[in-house]
């Protein structure tokens, strides 16, 4: 019963603010920046009132989609109409299996369908970015202002005392993305914390692993505010931003290629965007004379897809597909990596389980009514109330060399989950986008 109910919660859509559904509805075709995806960049660039920005989004607005609003429903978004429903090629290391690869299809991208985990990661990871790039601005300390610029840490949905669940010194309280601790207790909470007390060497308690020191078990931070998922459409394109007169958002706009319509040099200068709203029957080309940059922020699959169709990639591989090469760049569409996730299910001798919500329709209707009424209750929680970031001990003899950024970076993550989560590089994506916006502004003299 519940899955069929969830499928009904995703249907309805409305147009809000400066969001347009048709190319012909756009009041102007003159823009300084055209962004494919990228709500963070759209927000920060339009802080400059003389700069006009167009965002092209392949999906719909997700602002009013209940399935995306309710935190607990995140497990029902995989394979839904808000998911691009990508599938990997057959993987040699997985016995030839092809794996579902979720990506958000709608305004807000994957922030509208992920598991809402807000984890910055280890400071050593960021410092490794700085070393590899040769630029200290990507290090942990240098990115602190952007972490706080993104985050708005708020009280949990049930407003319980969280003094012993987080460290206020490492959080931002005036940003745009709502972040909170879990707002509804679970039967496993006391057991997890008791384990950290009984086995502090194996499972040390970590008050706040968003401090940069990642190792240990602690309370899970979620992109939830007032019991509702916080995603980039409701944060970076929220009511206080979407009505900016210099910000335009076009949904249902599938970008097919970026183009060099001038052809004035051997090195292409891409100055136009080709898109369609009817599966390719009609193609629109935007090439504003005022255009400063085209910014591709279409995700780990969408961005290389557009680049390859634009002739940017391995020229030999493109020729085999009948695509004219515009710039030989062999690494495009290569080197994607992701974390491995597996479940270890077990049975319990207890009636206080998630099945009470999933399989009893009366209970489900009661919890949904509570959430709709005051944004509290069981449906305000995410995939786990606690998470652990741990390392394989040296004496195990499994690792020939250190695979991570350093000795304070986790080898694996441990969660007590009621269902399978999506990936969660959420916080890092926001942080890097905030920094990128400043770099773009600086390059344009803003």
From TrEMBL:
It comes from Armillaria ostoyae. Coiled coil: none annotated. Keywords: FAD, Flavoprotein, Signal. The keyword Flavoprotein applies. Belongs to the GMC oxidoreductase family. This is Glucose-methanol-choline oxidoreductase N-terminal domain-containing protein. One of its GO terms (molecular function) is oxidoreductase activity, acting on CH-OH group of donors. It comes from the Eukaryota. FAD binds at residue 255. The lineage of its organism: Eukaryota, Fungi, Dikarya, Basidiomycota, Agaricomycotina. Residues 299-313 form the Glucose-methanol-choline oxidoreductase N-terminal domain. Its cofactor is FAD. InterPro entries: FAD/NAD-bd_sf, GMC_OxRdtase, GMC_OxRdtase_N. Residues 1-17 form the signal peptide.
């Amino acid at each position: 019963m519940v899955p069929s109910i969830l499928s009904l919660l995703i249907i309805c859509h409305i147009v809000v603010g400066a969001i347009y559904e048709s190319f012909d509805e756009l009041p102007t075709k003159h823009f300084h920046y055209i962004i494919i995806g990228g709500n963070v960049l759209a927000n920060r660039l339009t802080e400059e009132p003389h700069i006009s920005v167009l965002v092209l989004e392949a999906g719909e607005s997700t602002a009013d989609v209940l399935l995306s609003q309710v935190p607990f429903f995140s497990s029902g978004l995989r394979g839904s109409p808000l998911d691009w429903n990508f599938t990997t090629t057959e993987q040699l290391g997985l016995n030839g299996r092809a794996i579902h690869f979720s990506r958000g299809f709608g305004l807000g991208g994957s922030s509208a369908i992920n598991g809402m985990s807000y984890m910055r990661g280890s400071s050593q990871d960021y410092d490794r970015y700085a070393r590899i790039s040769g630029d200290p601005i990507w290090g942990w300390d240098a990115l602190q202002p952007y972490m706080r610029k993104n985050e708005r840490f708020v009280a949990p949905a049930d407003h319980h005392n969280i003094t012993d669940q987080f460290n206020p010194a490492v959080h931002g309280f005036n940003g745009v993305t709502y972040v909170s601790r879990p707002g509804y207790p679970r039967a496993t909470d006391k057991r997890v914390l008791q384990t950290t007390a009984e086995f502090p060497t194996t499972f040390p308690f970590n008050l706040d692993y968003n401090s940069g020191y990642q190792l240990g078990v602690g309370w899970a931070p979620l992109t939830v505010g007032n019991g509702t998922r916080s995603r980039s459409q409701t944060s970076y394109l929220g009511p206080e931003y979407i009505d900016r007169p210099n910000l335009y958002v076009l949904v249902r706009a599938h970008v097919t290629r970026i183009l060099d319509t001038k052809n004035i040099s051997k090195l292409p200068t891409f100055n136009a965007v080709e898109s369609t709203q009817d599966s390719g029957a009609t193609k629109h080309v935007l090439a504003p004379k005022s255009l400063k940059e085209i910014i591709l922020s279409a995700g780990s699959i969408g961005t290389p897809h557009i680049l390859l169709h634009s002739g940017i990639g391995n020229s030999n591989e493109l020729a085999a597909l009948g695509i004219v090469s515009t710039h030989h760049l062999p690494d495009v569409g290569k080197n994607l990596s992701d974390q491995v996730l597996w479940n270890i299910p077990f049975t319990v001798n207890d009636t206080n389980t998630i099945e009470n919500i999933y399989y009893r329709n009366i209970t489900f209707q009661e919890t949904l009514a509570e959430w709709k009424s005051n944004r509290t209750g069981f449906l305000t929680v995410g995939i786990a109330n606690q998470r652990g970031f741990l390392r394989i001990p040296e004496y195990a003899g499994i690792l020939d060399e250190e695979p991570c950024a350093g000795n304070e970076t986790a080898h694996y993550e441990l969660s007590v989950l009621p269902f399978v989560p999506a990936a969660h590089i959420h916080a890092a994506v926001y942080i890097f986008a905030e920094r990128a916006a400043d770099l773009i502004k600086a390059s344009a003299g803003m």
